[in-house]
Amino acid sequence: MNQSTERARALRRHQTAAEATLWRVLRGRGLNGYKFRRQWPIDGFVADLACVEAGLVVEVDGATHGRPAEQRRDAERSAALARCGFEVLRVTNADVLRNLDGVRETILAAIERRVTL
């Protein structure tokens, strides 16, 4: 088993409240029939949520992602995932916990834009 798979399994066991909340909405094809994978390894990274069919990764970010070092790391990660054919959509923990319907609609709009291209 590779390191990314082990890390993904650990992250599934220790998800944040926002990740768990969003996963309850997306799991079991809960978003208009689109299948999402949780904590899924892609090219050495572990995506919080991924819809392979649409080539969309949803990252649920906490407050630390506003720091310059984290923003640089996130940009590098997004570029690497883009080279693998994935668009990265970032949502905040606060948005998931306070505006779940809005986050759901944002994800759906991103998927529909990608699958109709």
Structural overview:
This is DUF559 domain-containing protein. InterPro entries: DUF559, Endonuclease_DUF559_bact, Restrct_endonuc-II-like. Residues 3-111 form the DUF559 domain. Pfam families: DUF559 (PF04480). It comes from Methylobacterium durans. The chain has helices at residues 3-13, 17-26, 68-83, 93-98, 100-115, and strands spanning 37-42, 45-51, 56-61, 87-92. It has 117 residues and is an alpha+beta fold. The chain has a single domain (3-115), classed as Endonuclease, Chain A (3-Layer(aba) Sandwich). The chain has a four-stranded mixed β-sheet with strand order 1-2-3-4, sandwiched between helices. Strand 3, helix 3 and strand 4 form a beta-alpha-beta unit. The longest helix is centred in the middle third of the chain and has 16 residues, at 68-83. The radius of gyration is 14 Å and the shape is globular. It starts with a helix and ends with a helix. The mean pLDDT is 90.
> What is the CATH class designation?
Alpha Beta
Counted by DSSP, the helix tally is: 5
Largest sheet: 4 strands, mixed
CATH topology: Endonuclease, Chain A
User: How many strand segments?
Assistant: 4
Oligomer: single chain
Query: Considering DSSP H and I runs of 4 or more, what fraction of the residues is helical?
Result: 40-55%
Q: Calculate the mean pLDDT score and round it.
A: 90
Strand order of the largest sheet: 1-2-3-4
**What structural category do the secondary elements indicate?**
alpha+beta
Order of helices and strands: HHEEEHEHH
Uncertain residue segments: none
Distance between the termini: 36 Å
What would CATH call the architecture?
3-Layer(aba) Sandwich
Number of domains: 1
Cα radius of gyration in angstroms:
14 Å
Strand content: 15-25%
Mass-distribution shape: globular
Pfam families: DUF559 (PF04480)
Domain DUF559: 3-111
Protein name: DUF559 domain-containing protein
